[in-house]
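User: Please fill in residues for this 513-position structure.
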């Protein structure tokens, strides 16, 4: 008979796990990780590009407003990723699967009455794309490990950054840095830089992608790493990728500048001799993740951060910004805007995104009359969070504009004069914009709560059944935007990063001389 003491089993109660997951998801909806805020504050101080500096100021101001007001950092409250390390001396007191229990936590978080989060998850993805209404199911990964605790990492991953995920089955001799640099132009700014790059190397195709995603849970420490120097090949690879990507000059929101990424994280795993799987997943300006540990004593909660640690950055409209009255918008005024101009929008605008555009297309093909008139109007690509506690609208930042490119000519035929969204437009859309002599305006992704404060009235005017994808009419006051594509087709997202890439290369040569 063994003298070894028996392991003490720890019981994790179903309700405690649900509450832990729900609380963590609420927490990350309005608190950035402190390491991200500190790194972004450093990037703000160093930034020399005026447009990029203004964008970072909006992100930092928005972050502090969300932390104080307990409202979402971004209108896209993400698809929930949950990584669990389950101690083998723990048992779950439940008759349901772990997936079902964790999904209850997601459901509770996203339907919280004081901070309702946007439900973005669609079932039957290839066909009917029905909204599940509560952001379930989450993407759950479980690893059994020795011990008597349950460690949980939760993350909420926005669609803009997730859509820019990259993967390649490389040959063993292929260069990883070269491949990453090849991807940067195709990623554009729809992933809302400045953020992080998560890299997975090895394993199999699906495992490699998970390595990349998990690496994004790690704390930002690039400044410390560069200060002490790399101590192994992976650390050197992190530095090489970090420097090479920032030298591309993409900058905050793709507006050209010094800080495109704040860190690079890499996880690797042994792989087959015939290949070298490599995955890259960016994290956006709405970096949202947290780590909790359950020990059987009840639900685990995260201590709130110290709000005095936020950089003292208070975004204010540029003195050079032009005020625009949307209620009296004319083609002549739109033609006078120059790429790079900063505008403050006032008056009424319509909203619409993927589902609304598709329905308009279907109605036009059937010869049906549209419920709204788009002539001489501006449209904002947005799917807002539901309002709470007397709000006009919840956080309402822009969605990625390129998804609307295929509908651009159709919408401009209806008389639109301006479109507002996030990041760049595709080449075909830019051609159409210049042909119709209209303009595309860019709002800052990652500043959704700040933008929502400019919205003074909001009402659904069409397609109410589409939920957050319905067409609203917003009345705005001094909503900040930048002219990204002007009526002549000049495109800030092509022009500015190229100028900054050349400037960074020049400065680097001068430093080396």
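Assistant: Residues filled in for all 513 positions:
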């Amino acid at each position: 008979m063994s003298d070894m003491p028996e392991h003490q089993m720890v019981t994790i109660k179903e309700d405690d796990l649900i509450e832990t997951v729900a609380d963590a998801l609420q927490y990350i909806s309005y608190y950035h990780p402190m390491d991200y805020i500190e790194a972004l504050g450093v990037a703000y101080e160093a930034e020399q590009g005026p447009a990029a500096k203004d964008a970072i100021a909006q992100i930092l101001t928005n972050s502090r407003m969300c932390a104080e007001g307990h409202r979402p950092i971004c209108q896209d409250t993400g698809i929930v990723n949950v990584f669990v390390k389950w101690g083998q001396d723990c048992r779950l007191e439940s008759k349901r699967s772990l997936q079902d229990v964790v999904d209850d936590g997601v459901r509770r978080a996203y339907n919280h009455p004081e901070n309702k989060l946007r439900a973005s998850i669609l079932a039957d993805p290839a066909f009917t794309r029905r909204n599940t209404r509560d952001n379930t199911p989450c993407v759950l990964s479980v690893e059994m490990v020795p011990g008597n605790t349950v460690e949980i990492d939760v993350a909420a991953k926005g669609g803009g950054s997730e859509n820019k995920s990259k993967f390649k089955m490389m040959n063993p001799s292929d260069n990883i840095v070269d491949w990453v640099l090849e991807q940067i132009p195709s990623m554009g700014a729809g992933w809302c830089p400045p953020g992080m790059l998560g890299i997975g190397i090895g394993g199999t195709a699906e495992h490699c992608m998970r390595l990349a995603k998990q690496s994004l849970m790690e704390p930002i420490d690039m400044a410390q790493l560069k200060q002490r120097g790399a101590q192994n090949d992976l650390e050197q690879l992190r530095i090489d990728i970090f420097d090479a990507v920032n030298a591309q000059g993409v900058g905050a929101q793709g507006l050209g500048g010094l800080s495109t990424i704040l860190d690079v994280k890499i996880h690797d795993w042994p792989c087959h001799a015939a290949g070298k799987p490599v995955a890259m997943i960016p994290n956006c300006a709405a970096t949202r993740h947290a780590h909790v540990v359950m020990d059987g004593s009840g639900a685990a909660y995260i201590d709130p951060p110290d709000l005095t640690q936020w950089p003292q950055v208070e975004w204010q409209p540029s003195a050079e910004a032009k005020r625009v009255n949307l209620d009296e918008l004319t083609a002549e005024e739109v033609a006078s805007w120059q790429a790079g101009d900063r505008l403050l929008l006032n008056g009424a605008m319509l909203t619409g995104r993927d589902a609304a555009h598709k329905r308009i297309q279907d109605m036009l093909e059937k010869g049906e009359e549209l419920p709204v008139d788009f002539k001489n109007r501006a449209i904002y690509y947005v799917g807002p969070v539901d309002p709470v506690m007397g709000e006009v609208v919840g956080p309402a930042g822009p969605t990625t504009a390129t998804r609307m490119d295929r509908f651009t000519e159709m919408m401009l035929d209806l008389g639109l004069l301006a479109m507002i969204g996030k990041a760049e437009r595709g080449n075909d859309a830019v051609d159409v914009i210049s042909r119709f002599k209209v303009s595309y305006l860019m709002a800052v992704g990652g500043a959704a709560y700040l933008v929502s404060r400019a919205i003074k009235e909001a009402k659904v005017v069409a397609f109410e059944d589409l939920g957050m994808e319905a067409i609203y009419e917003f009345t705005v006051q001094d909503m900040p935007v930048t002219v990204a594509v002007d009526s002549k087709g000049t495109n800030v997202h092509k022009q500015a990063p190229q100028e900054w890439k050349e400037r960074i290369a020049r400065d680097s040569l001068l430093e080396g001389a």
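For context: The longest strand covers residues 471-485.
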